[in-house]
Amino acid sequence: MAFIDYYKILGIEKTATDKDIKTAYRKLARQYHPDLNPNDAEANKKFQQINEANEVLSDPEKRKKYDKYGENWQHGEEYEKYAQQQRSQGGGQYSGFGQGHTQGFEDFGEFGGGDFSDFFQQMFGGGGGRSSGRQARYRGQDFNAELHLSLKDVSESHKQTLTVNGKNIRITIPAGVENGQTIKIAGHGGPGVNGGPAGDLYITFVIAPDPNFRRDGANLYTTVKLDLYTAVLGGEVTIDTLTGKVKLKVAPETQNGTVIRLKGKGMPVYKKEGQSGDLLVTYDIQLPRNLTEKQKQLFAELAESGK
Predict the structure, then answer these.
(1) Same-domain check for residues 25 and 113
(2) What is the extent of the structural domain holding 52?
(3) pLDDT tens-digit profile of 6-28?
(4) Percentages helix, strand, coil for the chain, rounded to the nearest 5?
(5) pLDDT in tens, 103-137
């Protein structure tokens, strides 16, 4: 098998940092993952090379040996010991063993020639007389999905079935989840490679604005129109909440903009059983229109009496 330049495979320089290596690996592994490239032999081969390169370069000790010994880094230290023994016993000359130097390596007993890709083949299956039968296991790809809900939907816990990658997944949506909140469903991402663990599913909740309520954490805010006569004389008004209609008593001489707090009538607090926020109601007093002449006269008399 031809020598593979791991830096070239990941598209990075030899001076790349650990963060550079991780970033490059994640980007390429996502691009060439078998789940995204079914029946594509070239993509599968590329994916294996990317994992092989990351296996070496992400490990400080392996990377140090690779930088020093090149393609035969895996056996470099053994060969140096062997060469030293040969020199001490009066054997052949040692010409050095650095990047690209492999003179005498073909005579190194059981290690033989070959590069690290051959070593991977032998260790993880696919060739070589010393294969242990094992294959490299890779974690499956993580999936991301959005779930669009209404404010009413998240006012109580409920179960819902999602179809992800052709599979139906039944999940429990906890009451009180926030817009933009993400939860993880472990093991419901892409399948692993060669028996590796499956990836995870990340679900982001998208909660549509509600025409009647504004949400702020667990509290809800709403505005209720109140006619002038009820505001002045007092009475009752019926309002909507997330759990149904409620009658409120209106005190006489209620002023415009008055705020009434209804304890526990807001949103459930996320993952806190039995706890809810409040509903804050603002009264918007409406002035009467299309008054009759008699009504206008009564208002005039009222105004005169107030002077």
Answers:
(1) yes
(2) 6-124
(3) 999 999 999 999 999 999 988 89
(4) 35, 25, 40
(5) 333 333 333 334 445 444 444 444 444 444 456 78
